[in-house]
Design brief:
By secondary structure, the chain is α/β, with parallel strands linked by helices. Helix content is 57%, strand content 13%. A five-stranded parallel β-sheet has the order 2-3-1-4-5, sandwiched between helices. The structure holds adenosine monophosphate. This is Adenylate kinase.
Length: 197
Amino acid sequence: MTRLLIVGPQGSGKGTQGVRIAEAFGIPTISTGDVFRAAVAEGSELGSQVKAIIESGDLVSDELTSAVVRERLSQDDAERGFLLDGYPRNVTQVMHLEEFLEGRGDELDAVIELSVPRDESIARLSLRAQEQGRTDDTEEVIANRLAIYERETAPILGVYGARGIVVKIDGVGSLDDITARIISALEARGLNRSAAA
Ligand code: AMP
């Protein structure tokens, strides 16, 4: 059972690395950004609640986001462990998650911090905007999202750091090198990859 969280500024590559690490450990990736984008694409009720917020780069309410995550974590495949990407994103969500996990006798094993210089994140985001045409990758929205990261998300690393579970990884380099760095840092903490991977 491996319970992980990956944290990093937009453009740090956390989505890509999150999927690779989850595969290596044989656990599902739970990305709140992906859940919200899928809901918008489907035109579901959740989608209509979050569409404008996502497009501005602001955060969806903590209550709604935490409810979505609780429901996802309650599905069978998350019983063996999970990798959270993009949640919790502020200290209130850290408390919501903790309350939920404690209720089932669980806690996070490690928090992967992908560290990438600001200029590099901005360059990668601009490239992704051209390639994928995400509506929240315009220059103005990118600046808003990075400011929110600094103000609201970076402090969660202080909370988890005080518990000694943050694994800081240099996020500059080739995709494969970064994946290998993360896996060896997790293994050094006694977290083992699934035999199936
Ligand atoms: P991401 O792909 O993780 O950057 O998420 C895209 C957008 O979804 C964010 O800019 C927010 O509007 C929303 N979002 C994703 N995760 C959260 C969260 N944990 N709390 C609030 N809003 C979120």
